[in-house]
Amino acid sequence: MTSHLECDVITPVDIVLSVSVATGPEVVAESLTVTIDGAPLDTAEILDDHGTRLHVADRIPVGSLVVDYAGQVCSLAEPAATRPFDLVRYLRPSRYCESDRLSPVARAEFVGLDGADLVSAVSSWVRTRLGYVPGSSRPIDGAVATLLARQGVCRDYAHLVIAFLRACDVPARLASVYAPGLSPMDFHAVAEAYVDGQWSAVDATGLAPRSTMLRIATGRDAADTAFLTNSRGIIVLTGMEVVAYTDERLPFDDVNALAELR
Question: 68: buried, middle or exposed (CB in 10 Å: 19+, 13-18, 0-12)?
């Protein structure tokens, strides 16, 4: 998989990148280069408690910033581990997943369902009632705005799924991934639901098979999983290209079946 970002740094800025594959898979080749006006920049890697690898660069001067990541893996990771606090954290409302505000809707729509049946029903509800429209949502939109607009992109679908599941007492979180087969190709976002003692990927867009996705970051919502975060300055994203592929034939994905994200 590869990702290429081009940005204009308007004022000196600090950035955090989340473009590298999370710890777990067997990586056979990998590189990350960050340059400003062609000159290399050093980054420091920070590891979070889900194996997300964050790369930090401070006080980047004004100029043209370019980020290039390339990685190749030969095996997938073991299923995500679960700590007791995860089951508390991922039941709570969060910035983009307002499960408290959506509780009346969720409990009316999915009354009497639980476990895998509930997850399947929520995924189907979101998939059939939203339109996938690139550019239709704003970075500040959460699940409530998505429900009202009835359209969005992958992160919007995932946020609504997560909010509905949390409102029905199912721990749920967001994962950013590289997704072979995705069209149009981009960074992708999916929900994960804690069902039957394991985390299962829920992709209401149905745009790529879940079994070939590679985890980048994990968190409460997009606030925890953004591929680029800036502070103490202004930066403008001017170009982006993401490529993810597998050497094997893409598998069929039964969207109603549980599937672990590896």
Answer: middle
* Separation between Cα atoms, residue 189 and residue 154, nearest integer Å: 6
Q: Which residue has the tokens 């509905």?
A: 164
Q: In this structure, are 70 and 187 located in the same domain?
A: no
218 in the same domain as 101: yes
Q: Which domain holds residue 173?
A: 86-222
Residue 40's pLDDT band (cuts 50, 70, 90) = very high
- How many domains in the chain? 2
161 close to 190: Cβ distance less than 8 angstroms: no
Q: How far apart are CA 69 and CA 17, in angstroms?
A: 10
Residue among 66, 56, 82, 76 nearest 231 (CA): 56
For the CA atoms of 53, 59, 62, 67, what is the dihedral angle to 10 degrees? -10
pLDDT higher than threshold 90 for residue 257: no
**CB distance 97 to 144 below 8 Å:** no
Q: Pull the structure tokens for residue 131.
A: 């339109």
Q: Which positions ≥6 away from 128 have C-beta within 8 Å? A: none
- Summarised one tens digit per residue, pLDDT across range 51-98 is 999 999 999 999 999 999 999 998 777 776 788 999 999 999 999 999
Q: What is the pLDDT of residue 192?
A: 97
Among 55, 50, 45, CA closest to 77: 50
What is the Cα 14 distance to its own chain's centre?
22
HSE, side-chain direction, 13 A CA sphere, residue 14: 6
Same domain assignment for residues 184 and 202 = yes
Indicate whether 96 and 192 sit together in one domain.
yes
